Each structure stands twice: as C-alpha cells, then as structure tokens.
Amino acid sequence: MTFDPARPRYTLTLAGTDYDLVGTLGLIEAVEYAFQDGVIRVAARTPDMGLTETAKLAAAVLGASGHKLTAARVGETIFDAGVNSEAFTLLRLHLYAFLKIVMQPPELREGTAKQMGELLGNAATPSRGKSTRKSRSAS
C-alpha cells in the first residue's frame, strides 16, 4: 500500500478490534464540533486527556471514519481495560499521532507518520534501563 498524503489512513485498535481511520476535513470538523475548540488545541492536550475527553475524541474520530461508536461505549471500553492501563495510554498516543499526521501539510504527512511511528514504537517497548533492585530506595 502506498502513502496517500491527501487522505492519510491509520489503523486504530480498540478492545482488540482494528478500525480504519481516514484523515479528512470532515474528521477535523467532527473533532472541533465535539470539543467546541480548534483541532490544534485538542491534539495538543490529547496525551494528557482523561477518560471522558478521550472517549469523546475517539468517538468523533471513529464516527467521521464511518465507525459508529458512541463516546459512552468507548468510555466503557476504556474503563473495562483500566483507566491507569498501558492500553489507555497507547490509545491517547495513537489518537495524538493520527491528528498530528492529519494536521500537517500534505508534503509533510509521510515524514510525520514515520516520526509518530517511532514515537509509538518507543512507547510500546518496555524500558531497558538498569534495575533499581539494588538501590537503597528499593529496600
């Protein structure tokens, strides 16, 4: 599959189901309508959003891509997985990455997609730092 900078595509996994997203003006309008705020400001706060805002954003993005999930349904899915779970953190990062790609000018979207892929790859990989088992604070 080739990258189409005019209509960036993205796969978002939610509760084990893959949803195909398509970046369009309609998607941006749906996000702005849902939040009554500009998409740039919404995207900037996505990594730190709570349950309710994340559910609303995911529902807007999914709905604009033809997947009819309500914010309540998405919220229940997030709640069931755990609000303090890695899955919830990754969901917010995936939403942030997709919005970041969509907002770029077409000639920069493929490069941004690669950067976001690296960001998500790093977020999903466990830390390989040194163990703190022998430190004084661990005892």
Could you please describe the fold and organization of this structure?
This protein is mainly α. The chain has one domain. The chain has 6 helices and 2 strands. Helix 3 (51-64) packs across helix 4 and helix 5 (86-103) runs antiparallel to helix 6 (106-124). The longest helix is centred in the C-terminal third of the chain and has 19 residues, at 106-124. Mean pLDDT is 85; it is low at 126-139.
Strand content: 5-15%
Number of helices: 6
Task: Let me know the number of strands.
Answer: 2
Structural domains: how many: 1
Average pLDDT, rounded to a whole number, is 85
Compute the separation of the termini in Å.
Answer: 52 Å
- Strands of the widest sheet, in order across it, are 1-2
Largest sheet: number of strands, sense, barrel closure: 2 strands, antiparallel
Spans where pLDDT lies below 50 across 5 or more residues: 126-139
Oligomer: single chain
Work out the helicity level. Answer: 55-70%
